[in-house]
Amino acid sequence: MNSTESNILKPEDKQQLPIANNSSTMPPVTPGEPTSIDEDLLTTSQDEERISIASNWTLVWWRFRKNKLAVVSTIILLLLALVVLVPDFFTTLDPEQTNARLAFIPIQNIHWLDEGKIKPWVPGVVGERDPVTLKMVWTTDESQKIYLKFFSKGLPYKILGLVETDLHLVGAVNSEEASQIYLLGTDRLGRDQWSRLAYATRISMTIGMISVILSVVLGLLLGGVSGYFGGWLDIVIQRLIELLQSLPTIPIWLALTAALPRTWSPEKVFFAITIILALRGWTTLAREVRGRFLSLREEDFVLAAELAGCSQARIIIVHMIPTFTSHIIATSTLAIPIMIVTETSLSFLGLGMRPPAISWGVMLQEAQNIQTLALAPWLLIPGLIVIVAVLAFNLVGDGLRDAADPYSH
């Protein structure tokens, strides 16, 4: 036998070759029973499939809900929106009712337990005449208990001006004690701060949101026209934006609001303040929209829409604006607190909303006097509500902006 024949294995020799035993590394698998590796792959594939078929708004919501601060802030804003829609439901007394003898009643803290049972109550108030100033000085007396009842009957009102009801969030169990509940105290005219705060929330929040809506409409309209058509329209609109942005903001606002006639009704002042705030707030968004339109008008889908015979209005509204709707929403959310703070500041200075209208700034006018503030520090509570609302809007705006940006994760 030569060397070549010795290297050729016979069939019976192949059968006698040793086979490696891999039982130590690969355990037996029962048919039909998924392994942990299969489950992980299945979960990954399902997640990838969900993401691949999800809409843009669904992806934004998935990213947004990971931001816990933004979610909590959204809940706070929803509660404020509920107050805006139905402020009468949260009142305990008529916010316009005055009684100078009941001035500066302190806050009545709610006690939730009574004799070991859950039975909310507030202490009564006792007044004594100051022998020097002859003014009434009010203090709380916890020996007098006024028991509370949630969803109680009270003053009648209409929900959104349509449905008449008398249901309120909180009230006294004994109807005769209903006029003795001042959860946030009273001001110098004896007006209930809790009820006034509900109405002030409606006006201040509404002014901020309507101003932002008007500024967004102006920004989209003028910015879109400037970026899409170009030419002399672009030149005129950009020069107008530069002129408005070069004007000092606070003096212009002060001058315009001071020019409002003092004889105007609160409704006229409300709309005037809203328009004044909107006229100065649209310029930044218009610049951003113009930049986006300049880049989008050369895209293939815009050219395809033009070749398909779509009108220019349809191309702008249906095809171009939806590509950055999430950015517009995030920008608008961040602009609302600016409008709220501006309105509050103007009203605090006496140049915005005026009595008998009720807003956060009007309520804070009561805290301008240091002596009054020393006697009634609870008059600053509207300022705390302003801080909470502004922080909530900013956190929600930041959360929406991060969720709408696909490159932020």
Spell out the key features of this protein.
single chain; alpha+beta; disordered N terminus; 409 residues; MetI-like fold; 56% helix
**How would you characterize the largest beta sheet?**
4 strands, antiparallel
| Strand percent estimate | 5-15%
CATH superfamily of the largest domain: MetI-like
At the first level of CATH, the class of the largest domain is Mainly Alpha
Kindly give the count of domains. Answer: 2
The order of strands across the largest sheet is 1-2-3-4
* Broad shape: globular
What's the average pLDDT? 82
- The CATH topology of the largest domain is what? MetI-like fold
Q: DSSP helix count?
A: 17
Give the % helix: 55-70%
**Based on the structure given, which CATH architecture of the largest domain is correct?**
Orthogonal Bundle
What is the gyration radius calculated from CA atoms? Answer: 33 Å
C-alpha end-to-end distance? 72 Å
- The secondary structure category is alpha+beta
Give the uncertain stretches in residue-range form: 1-27, 29-42
Number of extended strands: 4
Helix-strand sequence: HHHHHHEEEEHHHHHHHHHHH
